[in-house]
Specification:
globular; 6 helices; 124 residues
């Protein structure tokens, strides 16, 4: 079960990260519109966190640390891009990010499970 949960949680990060890599101009425009400093650095960091974090989560490698990083990323994304609560879609995205962070905190608390690189290394 933990492996299935890790794969399901990683899907959104992998798809979003690959989407950022496939459409950098659109992503940079969104980052600039949010007023984040150093948009190119923010773009590279976000794409890296999503792709690398998603892959590491699937593999179950350094899972607790990766889950904490992805939880923090999810909350940062929620408060940066999804606080226009008058727009129901944005409120749903905000709550989705908060829920993802909650699931990731569960992974951080309970570890990767037996089907993981962490288990092979004796670090479940």
């Amino acid at each position: 079960m933990p492996a299935a949960g890790r794969v399901m949680m990683s899907a959104i990060f992998l798809l979003s990260g690959v989407g950022k890599l496939a459409a950098p101009a659109a992503t940079l425009a969104m980052i600039k519109a949010a007023g984040l400093p150093l948009p190119e650095v923010s773009y590279a960091a976000a794409a890296f966190v999503e792709v690398a974090g998603g892959l590491l989560l699937v593999a179950g490698y350094r899972t607790r640390i990766v889950a904490l990083v992805l939880a923090a990323f999810s909350l940062a994304t929620a408060v940066t891009f999804h606080t226009a609560f008058a727009d129901q879609n944005q409120m749903i995205h905000f709550l989705k990010n908060v829920a993802m962070a909650g699931g990731l905190l569960q992974i951080a608390a309970f570890g990767a499970g037996s089907l993981s690189l962490d288990a092979r290394r004796g670090r479940v």
